[in-house]
From TrEMBL:
Ranges where the EGF-like domain occurs: 178-212, 269-304, 315-350, 361-396, 407-442, 453-488, 499-534, 545-580
Gene3D superfamilies reported in the protein's UniProt record: Galactose-binding domain-like, Tie2 ligand-binding domain superfamily
Signal peptide range: 1-21
Protein name: EGF-like domain-containing protein
Matches recorded under InterPro entries: EGF (IPR000742), Galactose-bd-like_sf (IPR008979), MEGF10/SREC1/2-like (IPR042635)
SMART domains with a match to the protein in the record: EGF (SM00181)
Keyword field: Disulfide bond, EGF-like domain, Membrane, Repeat, Signal, Transmembrane, Transmembrane helix
SUPFAM superfamilies linked: Galactose-binding domain-like
GO molecular function: scavenger receptor activity
TM region(s), chain numbering: 640-663
Keyword Kinase among record annotations: no
Length: 705
């Protein structure tokens, strides 16, 4: 066996000896659950999974690979042991391999945790090549133990066994770290960590899960269920309830002040006697009698005080009602001389006046609305509402002049100087003031009417109501067609509509309808249109019925009434003050200043449409009369002379030609030529006159130069 193995076994043996001497108890593996993170080593002889750390086997001989007793997880990795409950742990032992792999514990750390707290790092108390140990002094509450290995020179973190040792069991009646706390269980032991009693029942005077808390200051005994009754609320002993100086609170007695006073007694030291009616028992603390019923003539909670001068009877609950506030008998309530205060009657003046009467000796009648009961003392009616026609607090006076009805709250609405009935409100002459109607003139005119006998109609905007007396509208706005302060006057002639603010535009200045502005026979004045002639002619139109077109330069608008153009500039072809007259025949264009040189032409562009000929000196070209070329004469007489000369020239030429023909004919006849020669000669003569002569100027000599 190698020296390293011998050393490891020695250390393990030493630790086991120390553990036995300290008497901690190893937590059984059946109370531990193992979880891990990291891939386990898989070998020929089986796997080295995390559960091997609690298999009770250690690597004490041979190779750890063959023993099947160790866990090997590829780094980074961790193994966590979770306990079945929280223990007070004293020691944690981590055992490694003993076969020579002495770098197995490189970069390993220990973490401890509680159920209510996350894992926290914990230093190893001692660590070498094959084991690591942590000693917790004092013992600590632990629920989970984790050993974690980070990346190191070795691929695997190898652990053969993890052992957790808890604190030894405490003696009966103690618990917690080093058994330093006491528990007060009625029977049996308490849990070593929390101190909770196994039977969940505490000794007298104790409470809490571990029965380690005394009762609240005002309780004692079993389950702290008994109440302390000490003088001045002092705290009693939490186990037996005894009070300081044995002084009990009022109404209590006995050694621990837990017993109430005997029947018929109450108060401090139970030294006061009860004074309840018919000898009944009073409250043992304060002396209160059942239902506060004292002997007649006595009062207060313990019935020890006589009634006040104005009270009498049982519990002093009845009030004296004697004349002028005199005192009555405290027991019976009888008044001196049997004189009762107003509103009261009977021998002890304890009964109020009957319904309908009030006052001294109940001798005055009530006058309340609908016969309601009045106050039996003062005669006041409910809500101060008297019967119609009566007033004052006790309804004993008639209404003043000008008022009538319930509580005299209605005003008479009669004509000036006329009175009304104080009960019904009827006017003596049956004539109501303006704005009122009904038999007693108490009803305002119906909506839409006002004035005397409600005979005038309201004319308010949108049907708003008018004042039933004056007719004034609530918003001071009249409906269209009406004016005046109460909207009772139609609009003045020539106006109409809302506030009479619209002007009539009727033909021949006729009067329009004062409400909607419609004109007689629906005829509007020049320049106006629409149902009520309130709309000016559309752009480009003017005049009566808006039937005339504007002819303004560049299409500008004309006055919708007169047709006059802005700047009095007409479009070409039109004239007159309102540009409504076309140019006179023979003229056209802007302001009709241009001559078209024909009898009838287009007034805008001057084309001679409809004319057969132009004026002298002009000729028709494309519908327009244009002058001849500049070398032609334009004198009218010269043109006539030229025409006549042309006609005469043609006639003279014809005469000359005819004369030549006759002369030659005769010459052929008288020369004596043969017939044949004559015919030949004559034919030649005609041929000479034929138009196919090559002399282009043959006829020119016939023309006048």
């Amino acid at each position: 066996m190698s020296k390293q193995k011998i050393l490891a076994l020695f250390i393990v043996g030493y630790l086991l000896e120390i553990t036995t001497a300290a008497e901690p108890i190893q937590i059984l593996n059946s109370h531990i659950a193992v979880t891990s993170n990291g891939v386990p080593y898989w070998g020929l002889y089986g796997n080295m999974t995390a559960d091997k750390v609690i298999d009770v086997s250690v690597n004490d001989q041979g190779s750890a690979v063959y023993c099947g007793c160790c866990a090997a997880l590829e780094r980074p990795a961790w193994v966590q042991l979770t306990l079945d409950k929280t223990y007070l742990v004293e020691k944690i032992l981590v055992l490694g391999r003993t076969d020579g792999a002495f770098v197995q514990f490189d970069n390993i750390t220990l973490l401890l945790g509680r159920q209510d707290r996350s894992l926290q790092n914990e230093k190893f108390t001692l660590k070498n090549q094959s084991f690591a140990m942590t000693v917790l002094a004092p013992p600590r509450e632990v629920y989970a133990v984790r050993v974690s290995g980070s990346v190191s020179l070795t691929t695997y973190m190898t652990i053969c066994e993890i052992r957790i040792y808890r604190q030894a069991d405490c003696v009966h009646g103690t618990y917690s770290v080093n058994c330093s706390k006491e528990c007060h269980c009625l029977s049996g032991s308490c849990e070593s960590v929390t101190g909770i009693c196994m039977n969940v029942v505490c000794q007298d005077g104790w409470r809490g899960f571990a029965c380690n808390e005394t009762c609240n200051p005002v309780t004692f005994g079993a389950n702290c269920s008994l109440i302390c009754h000490c003088y001045d609320n002092e705290t009693c002993q939490h186990i037996n309830g005894t009070c300081p100086l044995n002084l009990c609170a009022a109404g209590w007695t006995h050694d621990n002040c837990s017993a109430a006073c005997n029947q018929g007694l109450f108060g401090e030291n139970c030294s006061y006697a009860c004074n309840c009616i018919n000898g009944s028992t009073c409250d043992h603390v304060l002396g209160h009698c059942p239902d506060n019923q004292c002997e007649p003539g006595w009062t207060k909670s313990n019935c020890s005080v006589a009634c006040d001068p104005d009270m009498f009877g049982k519990n002093c609950s009845s009030r004296c009602h004697c004349l002028l506030g005199a005192s009555c008998d405290q027991s019976s309530g009888h008044c001196p001389g049997n004189l009762c205060a107003p509103g009261w009657t009977r021998s002890n003046c304890s009964v109020a006046c009957d319904h309908g009467i009030f006052g001294n000796n109940c001798s005055f009648p009530c006058h309340c609305l609908y016969g309601e009961r009045c106050d039996h003392v003062s005669g006041h009616c409910p809500f101060d509402q008297c019967a119609p026609g009566l007033t004052l607090r006790n309804c004993s006076a008639e209404c003043g002049q000008g008022m009538f009805g319930i509580n005299c709250s209605s005003q008479c609405n009669c004509l000036p100087g006329v009175s009304c009935d104080h009960i019904s409100g009827h006017c003596s002459d049956d004539q109501c003031a303006p704005g009122w109607s009904n038999s007693n003139c108490s009803v305002a005119c119906n909506q839409g009417l006002f004035g005397l006998n409600c005979s005038s109609e309201c004319h308010c905007l949108h049907g708003a109501n008018c004042n039933h007396v004056s007719g004034n509208c609530s918003d001071e706005l009249c409906e269209p067609g009406w004016t005046n302060s109460n909207c009772s006057v139609a609009c003045n002639p020539g106006t109409f509509g809302a506030n009479c603010s619209y002007i009539c535009h009727c033909f021949n200045n006729e009067i329009c309808h004062h409400i909607d502005g419609t004109c007689p026979v629906n005829q509007c004045a020049a320049g106006w249109t629409h149902d009520n002639c309130s709309v000016a002619c559309d752009k480009g139109l003017f005049g009566l019925n808006c039937s005339s077109e504007c002819h303004c330069l560049h299409g500008t608008n004309c006055n919708h009434v007169s047709g006059k153009c802005s700047g009095e500039k007409c479009e070409p072809g039109w004239t007159n003050s309102n540009c409504s007259v076309a140019c006179t025949p023979g003229f056209y264009g802007q302001r009709c200043l241009m001559d078209c040189h024909c009898d009838k032409c287009h007034p805008v562009n001057g084309s001679c449409v409809g004319s057969l000929q132009c004026h002298d000196g002009f000729r028709m070209e494309n519908g327009f009369c244009t002058p001849f070329s500049p070398e032609c004469h334009t004198d009218k007489n010269y043109n006539a002379l030229l025409a006549v000369s042309s006609v005469l020239g043609v006639v003279v030429a014809a005469v000359i030609v005819l004369s030549v023909l006759i002369i030659r004919w005769k010459h052929c006849q008288f020369v004596g030529e043969t017939r044949a020669n004559r015919e030949s000669s004559c034919h030649k003569m005609y041929d000479d006159l034929a138009p196919n002569s090559t002399n282009r100027n043959f006829y020119d000599y016939l023309q006048m130069s």
